[in-house]
Specification:
Shape: globular
Strand order of the largest sheet: 1-4
Largest sheet: 2 strands, antiparallel
Radius of gyration: 15 Å
Number of helices: 1
Number of domains: 1
Helix content: 10-25%
Oligomer: single chain
Number of strands: 4
Length: 87
């Protein structure tokens, strides 16, 4: 199922924690191998830059280290990621 992609505890320590700089096993988000999305590298870089800049400007800090995931079977989007503004 898509919801388990990149969340294998054998491949990723703390698989349920959002880590922008996670390294290790290749991501399955853009499909591996010869069918890999041609824009995957650019899209990944754009998201990384956008999220980092947003967090720098808004001065947001995660309020909890435990995100709340939806219970859907085929995907695992975040339901809630508590955060607060830092003065």
């Amino acid at each position: 199922m898509l919801g388990s992609a990149n969340r294998d505890p054998a491949a990723f320590p703390n698989p349920d924690e959002p880590e922008l700089d996670r390294f290790g096993t290749e991501s399955l988000v853009f499909a591996p191998g010869p069918y890999r999305c041609i824009g995957a590298q650019l899209a990944t870089y754009e998201v990384e830059v956008a999220v980092r800049k947003l967090l720098e400007r808004l001065r947001i800090q995660l309020a909890s280290d435990q995100p709340v995931w939806t219970e859907l079977m085929n995907i695992a989007p975040l339901k809630r990621l508590p955060a607060h503004f830092v003065p």
